[in-house]
Amino acid sequence: MSRRLDIELTSTRPDGSWTWRAAGAKQPKGEIAPGIVPEDASVGAIVRAEAEFGVDGIEIVAVARPKADNRVEPERIVVTGTRRTEELVNVTYAERGKGKGRRRDDGDGRRPREGGRGDGGDRPRRDRTDRTDRSDRTDRGERGGPRGGSRDGRGPRRDAAEGDARKGERPARRPVPHEPPRLKRLKAGRKHRNALVRSLPELQQPLARLLLRGDIAAVRQAVTRQNELAAKDGLPQVSLRTIEGIADKLRPLLRSAEWYDRAEAAMTQLDQLDLRDLRSVVVAADSGARDDEARAMAVELRAALTRRVDEEHRAWLDELTTLLADGRVVRALRLSSRPPKAGAPLPPEIAQRLATAASSGLTADTFPDRYAMLIEAVAFSPVRLQVVPEALPSKTSDELTAAVTKLAARVPQIAQRFGIEPAPAKS
Hints:
The protein is α+β, with helices and mostly antiparallel strands. 43% of the residues lie in helices and 8% in strands. Among the domains are: 2-63, CATH 2.40.50; 191-310, no CATH class; 327-417, no CATH class. The two termini are 48 Å apart.
């Protein structure tokens, strides 16, 4: 892969070759073959060169003409200003006696005592022990005092029995169901990836970073952009096929290092890691685990995944049973469509209870919006073909008809009750 860089011409030889070093470096970096450096170049000039980075070193393949001014020191812009002395801070003094928040005193320059009102008195501070305790306040409230009576303290505001009756009229708040703790997502480090990149030859390290950033597509994009810039400057272009060949050799090593970082992060949180992330690490072990230590780690991760899936499946069945016992049919139907263990069927007993509860909810007295909600939950549950409505709703709505039409292919037995034919499958 070729790159453009600034170099300094350090010396010339009788055969027409040159020596060079990177601009600002202390030691020369290599030689330039005869016929590449322009004739008007001189020793000490800093020029723009096209360098080919290979396994054997850096080869200069093209050198642009030196600029007229090769100064190393950056240009400076001198700011002279107006050369006038100006006041940068304006100070305005307030009139005596009109300041807000000024300190009050007693005429002798001293501040008033704490607890006083600024008149120099010796009013004592109220101590916490002088306050009336909670029992006294409760007694006053029961006797119709200021704490439970009217504003003038001569009678209660309302009768206690009346207040209890009003509280009883309010519907009891439904308890919030227990939500399982949110699992952690996998956050892998970069220890093995960085170590692998550092171990590669210097010329291959930029290519490895591109592969880690966006795989082979990022490499192709970078080479295409570099060739476009080289074509504008009249410089030779890079062979995309050669770069892709090197990238194909690096990809397995980089994938293995990435898997190692993810596997080490997963090992530290086996019991709290999200099952999706844990499953992705186990699946990638077939191509990522390349040595004995990695294979042993993959076996441990696979055993942990099996254990976690079994635990989640048992908890899933227990939650389904609890939801059906509480009469929460819609939530049970939606939960049944997301089993932790893929392909595991519902036990016949739970499936029968779920289908019966869903059918019992589709009655003539069910409101249209509730009816549509139940049908949508049934359509994606494993008992969708076992649910048969007890009766059609006494009142229908456009939203209910639209929902049945949309889901007719998944619940044909319900759509037939509404007189709706499922749409033919698209070929």
